[in-house]
Amino acid sequence: xxxxxxxxxxxxxxxxxxxxxxxxxxxxxxIEDGVYGGLSGSAHTSWVAEALGDVRVYALEPDLxxxxxxxxxxxxGIEAVGYDGxxxxxxxxxxxxNWL
Amino acid sequence: xxxxKKFMYINxxxxxxxxxxxxxxxxxxxxxxxxQDVCMAFIGDGVFQLKQDQDTAxxxxxxxxxxxxxxxxxxxxxLYVERESLQERGLTEEDLMPLTWEDEDEDWTEKSSIHVVDxxxxxxxxxxxxxxxxx
Lengths: 100, 135
Fold this sequence. Notes:
The complex is a heterodimer of chains A (100) and B (135). Chain A has four helices and five strands. Chain A is an alpha/beta fold and 100 residues long. In chain A, helix 3 links the parallel strand 3 (56-60) and strand 4. Chain B is of the alpha/beta class and 135 residues long. Chain B has one domain (6-134): Hypothetical Protein Ychn, Chain: A (3-Layer(aba) Sandwich). Helices cover 21% and strands 24% of the residues of chain B. Chain B contains three helices and seven strands, in the order βαββαβββαβ. Chain B has a five-stranded parallel sheet with strand order 6-3-2-1-7, with helices on both faces. Chain B has a two-stranded antiparallel sheet with strand order 4-5. Chain B is globular, with a radius of gyration of 15 Å. The chains are: A alpha/beta (100), B alpha/beta (135). Chain A binds chain B through residues 6-8, 10-11, 32-33, 36, 39-43, 45, 61-63, 65-69, 73, and chain B through 13-18, 44-45, 48, 51-59, 61, 63, 65, 88-90, 95.
């Protein structure tokens, strides 16, 4: 399953809840303010990094750029993808859940 | 000036996901025309508003972040950024866009508008205000 998260982890528990429900092998795509959840060196980095053993986490590059961020600010193991990558993830998974 | 009040605009939201940031900035710029004593505070995800190199071209959204540079010309030259909020987000002062103003009293010397302060200092500053507005 593909999970998308669009809220900052500093404002909402969406990412935490998503990661607690996501089965091993799931894909998690951080979009919009959700990309802040991928930041390295933040107060949330350790529990997000911990989840990387179980699920693959991606962050949408245009949303990073809009916020003045780039792939090199992400926790190692989180991959920045473009809109084409978003489409590929949507096609590769049988279901999508949007954690609004 | 007589009759002026001390205003603080508190910004607590990230720049793009909601309209709080852009609406708040608009209110500050409009309010600046009334020659009040205005300062801004950036706490929580609000500190992301000042992140440099914001580029919204690929998202199809308008990039309003250059408008923060106009604040200095409107004599809004005290932007307090909470140190703890930066640290929690893995940011430092170097990540913020350079915002300056020119000091008329010191031969138009260019000075930074950004002041990184800790939570206790910001709490004291809030007490000094007449009017506080949150965005």
